Write the structure tokens for this entry.
Amino acid sequence: MRTPLASIRAPRKGAMVQKEFMAHVASRIYSVYLVNEFPKSGGTWLKHMLADSLGVPAWTKGRISWRSCVLQGHWLKPRGRCRTVALFRDGRDVMVSFYHHAFFLNEFQNGSLVRKMRKQFHFEDYEDIRTNLLPFMRGIHENPISPNFRWIDFVDAWAGRDDVVITRYEDLRADAAAEIDRIVFELTGEAPPPGRSAQIVGHYTMEQMRARKAELNPGVAGRQDAEVSFIRKGSVGGWSEAFTDEALEWFDTIHGGALERLGYEMRRPGP
């Protein structure tokens, strides 16, 4: 039996205050690394791989570290002296993944967001993503809820900055070991030992991430009944199945410049 939305506890606000403290204050004392993304861009995956490569803890709500660590954030502005990696993902895949995160309970305490989203969007069938995706995208473009900014705002704020390391989810999926090697070198000036990144990547496949959810997020696991997994397919180009032609035309009109700026193809993936 599914847990009623009204009974789901919101994520602990104290954890957000602690994270802000780490980013603003502790980063001036310790080496604090930040994986900064628009939600559903692969930040959890990158955070854990990067933490293992750097030999520092991955900061989570259930395993807070008050020393050098890797944070994960959804911020428009830099924080303190964090050594920042700006992570991007094709905005169309982000919209599909964020739709599922917004309307279906997962194991990582998104109950508050689901309540807000279902209050704003009264869809007849929330599982009918092809019908609902366009009004959903229009709605969060006009009135962002969580976060309180849009995907295009994140791109405008972080793409092209020369004081952060830039990476894309698709490049990580194509060759995660090589991308981790590059990111670590740009952050620290030192390359990981040969073969180390490949070994780390092998510990964080999508299947293993789903199997290790409680271990990777000890502070929130097991507190609500999940309808979908927080760690979904992680596909590249899967957006094409959910986008109608009308939805694609709208997204390209609003976000086409940002897609091109990040190097994404405008057309649907070919066979």
